[in-house]
Amino acid sequence: MKNEFLCFKYKGVPRIDELIKNSDDYGWKCRKYIRWEQVHNKATDKVALKTFGDSLLNNKYVERKYLGDIQAVFLNVQKWRFDKEQLSVEPERKTSWERLNIRIEATGSSPSIIVNEITQRNIELNLSDVDEVQEAFWIISSVEFFADQNYGKFADVQSHNVHIKHLRGEFYPLLKQLLLGYLGMLSYSPNELGLLLKTLRYLGFDKLVSHERLPIGNNVNDTQPCKVYVEYCELERERLMKYTYVRDNVVLKINKNHPFCQRYIIVEEAKHHVEELLKAIALSCDDMITNEDIIRQFTSYIGMHLLREI
């Protein structure tokens, strides 16, 4: 993904509007980080931090030239909170980013999700045109993503009971405004759909799926069974796992730094049984999945007790 867009993926990394709104606070933080070489990524970061911080403090202005470097420094500051030596632990992702990421992964195994979404929203388009169907789906997904982050005017885009032309007309000007704001230019693309897909990759969604054949004509109201998608990541040492509930699917993140996991994931058969156990726990919590505090306490409790046993 592009560093300029890290703010849309990670908590603690400020967007342009947040930098301007709190220019004094972030300006002083930039000056503070000048001497903190541990969070730097390259030799020029000192100059970038000073220039960027001065611009915020003196003019409430974002020096776009250094935006990507500054975002990467702020990301390292978040990593430092979890690993003060190696900065090796990925910081917490934004919920809206997680939602769209698992939604994209889900379309790979269940392309009917795309048709379901278009049908349920009553978008007027040519259902036999696969490109048009997919374009509408990615537009809707992007609108929800930015609206969830309360960014710009994406929440005002009408995405129910509209024609695809109307949807395009409201969405693409906002997308181009976003790209101009963060990159200062529009990336080349032969068409607007290509520009949208490129932007989604800039945001870190590298698993975009293109379906040559969608299940057009299928019963889109068929209920799909809940699925669990497993990922391994780096969390606090005592945290065994975390998971979220996204559009009838669960994304389960297992902490590869936890001693319990380190002991068992090296043996393929044991790894399979551990994953199935954690999947069962995730699915059994389906009824309380919206209460994040209870889930966080529950998974932390399991992790701490396993630590004591090892």
Structure report:
About 4% of the residues have low confidence. α6 packs across α7. A hairpin with a 2-residue loop joins β2 and β3. The protein folds into three domains: 80 residues, no CATH class; 108 residues, no CATH class; 83 residues, no CATH class. With 310 residues, the protein is mainly α. A three-stranded mixed beta sheet has the order 1-3-2. It contains twelve helices and three strands. Helices cover 53% and strands 6% of the residues. The protein is flat and about 55 Å long.
Total beta-strand segments: 3
Count the domains.
Answer: 3
Proportion of residues in extended strands: 5-15%
Name the average pLDDT: 83
Radius of gyration from CA coordinates = 22 Å
Largest sheet: 3 strands, mixed
Q: CA-to-CA gap between the ends?
A: 38 Å
Our count of helices gives: 12
Neighbour order of strands in the largest sheet: 1-3-2
Low-confidence residue ranges: 217-223, 287-292
* Overall 3D shape: flat
- Write the H/E string, N to C: HHHHHHHHHEEEHHH
> What class would the helix/strand composition place it in?
mainly alpha
